[in-house]
Amino acid sequence: xxxxxxxxxxxYYVNARPHIGHAYTTIACDAIARRHRMLGDDTWFLTxxxxxxxxxxxxxxxxxKSPQQFADEVSxxxxxxxxxxxxxxxxxxxxxSDRHKRGVQALWRKIRxxxxxxxGTYTGQYCVSCELYxxxxxxxxxxxxxxxxxxxxxxxxxxFKLSAFQEKLVELYTGQPDFIRPETxxxxxxxxxxxxxxxxxxxxxxxxxxxxxxxxxxxxxYVWLDALANYVTALGYGxxxxxxxxxxxxxxxxxxxxxxVRFHCVYxxxxxxxxxxxxxKCIVAHGWLLFEESKMSKSRGNVxxxxxIVDVLGVDALRYFLLREVVFGQDGSFxxxxxxxxxNADLANGLxxxxxxxxxxxxxxxxxxxxYPSHAAHKPEDxxxxxxxxxAIADFGSYFDQFQxxxxxxxxxxxxSAVDKYIVxxxxxxxxxxxxxxxxxxxxxxxxTSAEALRIATALAHPVMPDSTAKIWEQxxxxxxxxxxxxxxxxxxxxLGTKLxxxxxxxxxxxxxxxxxxxxMEEQNNSTAPAPMTPATAVTxxxxxxxxxxxxxxxxxxxxxxxxxxxxxxxxxxELRVAQVKVAERVKGADKLLRLEVDLGTEVRQILAGIAxxxxxxxxxxxxxxxxxxxxxxxxxxxxxxxxxxxxSLEGGKPVLASFLEDVPIGARLK
Length: 671
Ligand SMILES: [Zn+2]
Description:
By secondary structure, this protein is an alpha/beta fold. 41% of the residues lie in helices and 18% in strands. The chain contains 21 helices and 27 strands. The strands form 7 sheets. Strands 1, 2, 3, 4, 8, 13 and 14 form a 7-stranded parallel β-sheet that branches. Strands 18, 19, 20, 21, 24 and 27 form a 6-stranded antiparallel β-sheet that branches. β25 and β26 (656-657) form a beta hairpin. α13 crosses α15 and α17 (437-461) runs antiparallel to α18. The radius of gyration is 30 Å and the shape is elongated. It binds zinc ion. Residues 127, 129-130, 132, 143, 145-146, 148 line the site of zinc ion (ZN).
């Protein structure tokens, strides 16, 4: 049974440019939305920007812009980031849009007509930064949320009868324990509400950047009532067309950061109750993303942009890292070192290596067709892999649906490492060298089992890494992953004889230079970034994302180097590594060309080399050579060459392979 599924991110306040924290929330929602689409649910994924309030009015003024112009610019930055990252939102709501204003005013009228809005005088402290009235505080008191000094305000305001909802809210939290997740947040909210609720001032008359109160335009609506309403106005609430509202309301998941729990878990359900609207099913608060253990903040200058990571490692690497490394609900730490380490361990050497070695061997030994497993050659360890896969499917689903992304991915990667071990123990390359029927049958079984496990791990990882899993899926010969019905995912569906697609590395290994590049990009960005509270016009929106993760160094400012010389930076771009030849053979129809398979320690690659006249293939097997490991793949005679070996020759003379006098480990880098 498929149902509807409505998920929302908080709408982002346009006083700051998008950073990795915003990306984290939005990526988590994107992964959840993708999983629900995969399962056949009619899914609606909403994000957008929050653009009203005194803070924006003041920031725009400081920047010499109109508030609308200011909001337009920053809202565009968010949207273009999400587009660049390929995030699959269905709607992008802006609180300055007419459809939102109309909806908010309709909501106000409904709450007012139900008797929950009255006029009164407010005297008290207000935090402009948090747009928060601080109850019971003395003049000069600090804001309990951000620590800034509050301002004293006295004005005729409209009030919302929040106090009327205290009991109903407590009933909600206790009767529906999953309404707020995780439990720690639920307990905080419960004790806050049990401490007593005072009526809430919901209009302001001292500034004008907001939505006018219906029938009293001297007031604008409190920015939090305005902002929270986006979740319902985006579906057409208050308009003539309520099709979407009827289809998707209420939200199934509302994702927020822990700092806005009170607004979403106290005020929001109270507003909805007051307007007779059904409540969201669950509000999920995640923790903060810290940078090397400390909170990212503009004043510390340690705000990391997601774009930098996407430029260097690709968007899937960022998505995987955030969901794998951070325990959802808790604070998580981000560092470039941890990112690259995780990328290499789990993606380059994990899923990526499993894909390339399995598919390469099927190509080599079975002409690129998934072989038939043989009953005669069956062994208990094959069943063990099947069992691990079944467990991974079940565990992944239940963890993921409980927002435990890290554990879900851990269970999928448990399968990846089990197959890795299985391949090492069964040595398919050794079986491939033998010609007897028994070895041949065992080889077919081992490769079939590995490919089936690869298929399942790839399917599970799809909502988290949509692009790279789509590529592996195609390489497996399975076509468009979007067409696959994930409710059917089970062991044993890989059709025998499936013709593989073209095999290509999906996660090229990243080295230390990747970290340096990201750090430099952030340093440069921070030194040119506009001061806080000014709009980000100095930042050019990034160009379209490359479709594949690329390790190519981004263009750097050209240093002055004497004619004909290159800088050390240019040299370090070339990744020279020691590799050992595993297979060498002539290429049909090409006198000079040899096809080699070389082991880099972390992976086996195919390289084509024009050395057939100088070296007999059999003399090369076992020999250690030097290759350019980060050369973009090239096609020669219809075969892909993934790297280049180094050989020296004089014009017209025979090439001589570069080699070492002393023994040298496979994979060592030349520098
Ligand atoms: Zn504050």
